[in-house]
Design brief:
Elements (H helix, E strand, L loop, with lengths): L12 E6 L3 E5 L12 E5 L2 E6 L5 E4 L12 H9 L3 E2 L4 H7 L9 E3 L5 H4 L9 E5 L2 H4 L22 E4 L5 E3 L2 E6 L6 E5 L8 E6 L6 E4 L7 H4 L21 H14 L5 E4 L4 H7 L14
Protein name: Metallo-beta-lactamase domain-containing protein
Cofactor: Zn(2+)
Family: Belongs to the metallo-beta-lactamase superfamily.
């Protein structure tokens, strides 16, 4: 289960959180043993990763778009009837306010195609997009060809999107499939099955001497799941599959792998909807143009 030891002059990434909106999540939809009626006002976090030596920049997720009324109609209906959102500053504004243009972002890695992670992809006109291979089927034909689709057909730019085939990826730590993206041990794309087809996470070195940060996307929506204090809620009528994950068994297995990861020294795990992280760090130096301190 150990992670690779740092090499001499090890490459790593500076990692910054990005403000990208908030979403109101009823706890009973996500965890067993929830307090009835309790709603967590959670962030929809995005991140900027900057390679310390090759100067490449990568955005991981884009949160909620500020003009959320321009999502496909089925999503707008879901926002107005199931969730509430509050977007003071979206990922694009967060980047600009910190002094970086979307044209300066080399890669945009989308953990999965749910609306609260995709933001407004059209603003990134030069970036190469990175997604799990199964995302391709979600946007074909997509909205507006399919008026009921949750996914816009133009979500991922044609000719600038890499659809990962995880079949031959190598294991790292507790995870059976990972891609050493820059081929220098600085950033690994992790196959993270269960939540939505094509779901991926990122494991990145946060220091030259052995620190790591794991960006877990929607692998879990509450820390009680990662600590194994709660299980994934099942049987909620708001979800097509009865729970937030399309494959509950695969999602649970992946959560257990993340739990194992938390036992490794100097590894910090951050969820996309990490309310404790956000409460502790909002308006602070963990957000761009600052960076998340390494362990």
């Amino acid at each position: 289960m150990a992670l690779p030891s740092p090499r001499y002059n090890q490459a790593y990434c500076d990692i910054s959180a990005l403000e990208a909106g908030q979403i109101y999540l009823p706890d009973e939809m996500f965890i067993t043993g929830a307090i009835p009626g309790k709603v967590t006002i959670a962030p929809s976090l995005s991140f900027l990763l900057r390679h310390a030596t090759n100067n490449k920049t990568l955005a991981f997720d884009l949160g909620i778009r500020k003009d959320w009324q321009n999502y496909p109609p089925s999503i707008v209906h879901r926002i107005t009837t199931v969730y509430r959102v509050h977007v003071v500053q979206d990922a694009l504004e967060s980047l600009l306010n910190g002094g970086i243009s979307p044209e300066d972002v080399d890669y945009v890695c989308i953990s999965h195609c749910h609306w609260d992670h995709t933001g407004d992809t059209t603003a990134f006109k030069k970036s190469t997009f990175l997604v799990g291979g199964a995302c391709s089927a979600l946007i074909k034909p997509g909205y507006p060809v399919d008026p009921d689709s949750h996914f816009a057909s133009e979500l991922l730019p044609e000719g600038r999107t890499i659809f990962f085939d995880t079949t031959n990826w190598e294991p790292i730590g507790p995870f059976p499939r990972a891609l050493d993206f820059f081929e220098d041990g600085s950033l690994y794309i992790i196959d993270a099955p269960g939540h939505l087809p094509g779901h991926i996470n990122i494991l990145a070195r946060s220091s030259r001497d052995g620190g790591w940060i794991y960006l877990a996307g929607d692998s879990a929506h509450h820390w009680n799941l990662v600590t194994l204090r709660s299980n994934i809620a099942q049987g909620h009528p708001g979800f097509l599959h009865g729970c937030v994950h399309v494959d509950k068994d695969a999602a649970e297995a992946h959560i257990h792998r993340i739990n194992e990861l938390t036992k490794i020294p100097r590894v910090q795990v951050i969820l996309a909807h990490d309310e404790p992280f956000y409460t502790k760090n909002k308006d602070g130096s963990a957000f761009w143009p600052g960076k998340i301190p390494t362990l």
